[in-house]
Write a structure and sequence with these properties.
binds zinc ion; 238 residues; Helix Hairpins; three-stranded mixed β-sheet; mainly alpha
Length: 238
């Protein structure tokens, strides 16, 4: 095997590791955002229920005040009724009192419904608040794990990049720039074997002439179809 191919294969191995680390690192912000959204969703659900219990409570208080003012109204009418001399007015007062009493009954029925709803909402709120707290703890832990992983990946990446740089310095600049262009264009599988006279990159069958050229290993040989760098070892006979 040509020494330059050996070097390129080692370089390619580092590039594979480097690209894998870069992909993993690039995905971390999205994972973090998803975790934060998950915690936010639970907090929002608990918040909605809190708003609902507050709303129900204030509605109930409003009804209570309305009942009180209607009771006040009845007392006022009863006083006026006691003082009147007119039978017709007396009957009108009786009618007003009866109407107001049935209004009060209706309001008290509404109050009961609201109280039941408030009870349910309070129970749901307690469950939602607990869930939100548990989720937040879980998410906080996952986010801190993520930060630790990011630290490790970043350190690994720096080491691989340093290693790669040292290895790249051993490859002549012309070949290196061809290799780098290939990596940029085709990813991390650009120095490929020719098992069975087939390019290990694009899987096109090589001509006998190209295969023999690759087999000879006297110079760098490129796939005529995909321009990848071809290499040969004995177990690649067609
Ligand atoms: Zn090819």
């Amino acid at each position: 095997m040509l020494p330059v191919i050996e070097r390129l294969l080692v370089l390619q191995d580092r590039d594979r590791k480097r690209l894998r680390l870069e992909t993993e690192l690039a995905d971390l912000p999205l994972q973090r955002r998803r975790l934060q959204e998950r915690a936010a969703r639970n907090a929002a659900a608990a918040d909605d229920l809190k708003q609902r219990t507050r709303h129900l409570e204030s509605e109930r208080k409003r009804l209570e005040l309305e009942v009180k003012s209607k009771e006040e109204f009845i007392r006022k009418i009863e006083t006026q009724q006691g003082a009147t001399k007119s039978n017709e007015e007396y009957r009108r007062f009786t009618h007003q009192i009866d109407t107001t009493r049935s209004e009060i009954t209706a309001l008290e029925d509404q109050e009961l419904v609201l109280m039941e709803q408030a009870e349910t909402a309070t129970r749901e709120l307690a469950a939602a608040a607990q869930l939100a707290a548990t989720e937040k703890a879980t998410v906080d832990k996952l986010i801190s794990d993520l930060a630790a992983r990011e630290g490790n990946l970043t350190a690994d990446l720096a080491a691989i990049r340093g290693d790669r740089q040292r290895l790249a310095a051993d490859v002549d600049p012309g070949t290196l720039s061809k290799y780098d262009r290939l990596v940029e264009k085709r990813g991390d599988n650009v120095v490929v074997g020719v098992t069975g006279a087939i390019c290990g990159g694009c899987h096109m069958k090589l001509t006998q002439q190209d295969f023999l050229k690759a087999k000879a290993q006297q110079e760098l040989v490129f796939c005529p179809n995909c321009t990848r760098i071809l290499y040969y070892t004995r177990d690649m006979e067609p």
